[in-house]
Amino acid sequence: MATSALTDLERRKDRFDPASTRIKLARLAQLAHRRLARADQVRRLHEILCFMRAYPDSPRLLRAVDAMLRTFDRRPDLRAHRERLAYSGIAGTRLWFPFFYPTAGWLARRWPERFTLDRSDTVAGESIATLLPALLTPVEAHALREAKLTGFDALDAVRGGETDATFLLRRVAALPADDRLREAIYDAINPSCELAAGAGTPNRSRAALMDVRPVWQTGPLRRERPDLSTAIRQPPRRLRAAPRTEARALIDLARGAMVTRMRDLDAFAYANERDVWWIEDDGGLAFALIGMLPERRAAVPAIYGGLTLQNGVPVGYHQSDLTGRAAAVSFNTFDTFRGGEAAHAFARLLAALAHGFGSASFSIEPYQLGKGNDEGLASGAWWFYAKLGFRPRAREGLWLAQRELALRARSAAHRTGPDVLRELAQHHLFYELDRGDPAPLLAPAALGLAAARHLAALAGSHREQGVERASAILMRRCGVRSIGRWTAAERTAWLAAAPVLSMLPLSAWSSAERSALVALVRAKAAPSERAYVRAFAALPRLERDLAALVRRR
Length: 553
Prior knowledge:
553 residues; eight-stranded mixed β-sheet; three-stranded antiparallel β-sheet; 50% helix
């Protein structure tokens, strides 16, 4: 009986007519108190509930779903299959991942007694044996070298009552170094960690903003493919800066959405609560865009991580690297919500970037399409974007894309082979609001390598001197006498940008353009980078000269 009820609920989860609503309520009532026999059935029930939480069709159904998700960790079948469901993100199960240093630090601060190392990670154990002495006092370091203990045994010998992961994180954090060096040392160990389930620990079962007014799903999901040009020109209902309390809640929700799915994202790990934007759209759809701390920002693009939310439930995540008019977008829908409204949500994200940040040219990098990413190939990512109107610019990529599109036009049954998909995935895809004036692709890798050659020419291996000389060149060309009275964040932004900007032919710029460039660099250090993005787009000379620099190098 429970199995048939589960199958019926799964079949009807995305049907929203009155008859289906009644049947869904009946099946929920049955499954709330019935024990499922297998772990995969428990997982299926959980995913159905998460989907229905994002797309409720009535207050009564939402209450029933909420009640089941709030108590999911207390289900007897969940407890019986807890080990088989480990790392699933379901409430009551433990989490695992080789978390980034700032994310691991966040977990260790919030749940220090539940955060531990995965001791099956023997490579990390060897790295701990090598690096742990450098994190301790001289007498302890000497003892560990003499005792020749394994990494995990050495940790046990010195950590006292703290967990191994929490002790390790605290010792790295105590190093007399800046956070970049601490992060590099932690990354050299790269330990896999576990977070035991407990009160308040991240889980997917209860992941939702509770103060969002629900929008009832009374008709079919928006699965049709939108016309991007029309969709992007339609502004979102509302865009506003999130107050600090709300921003912190959104950052925690974003971090939780990642750690419960064995993922991590720098923009969330180094989130800046002063640069969080809430973008509200129709039908319960919303986006949270989260900027990075000033000291961790990229030199040229402004990077925003983001959540896609449906009725307050995270249904996907994304990253937008914004360089003036150009937006390099990475867009992901969580497994539970695939086959739903992904194309509609993606189009509305582009609209949010266009109206909120001035983006007019959108690109998808090869990794997202499947280059070195089997998941991207298997998901058909290239076709997802191609059907929306994205195209390569590279001649060989465009020729191959046109051939595949023609084959598909002649026969709907045509399927692109894996080898051809791999070739297609070698090239960026682009969509332009103004095809007559496409924004250039200012790839950070190309700019960064050009800067590396420039610094090597200025001072060889003495990179600090190289940066100072690049800064002096830039100051002289821009007419800046001193940056000594600037804020610390502004000086950091200037020194980060100087290796790139000092290569530009600024003598050919007008005085007004050079003044705008100085103001732009200072805007990079503002609490929010939104004004920086718009100011960059208002300085077309910078875009052109950076593009020429990339082509020349």
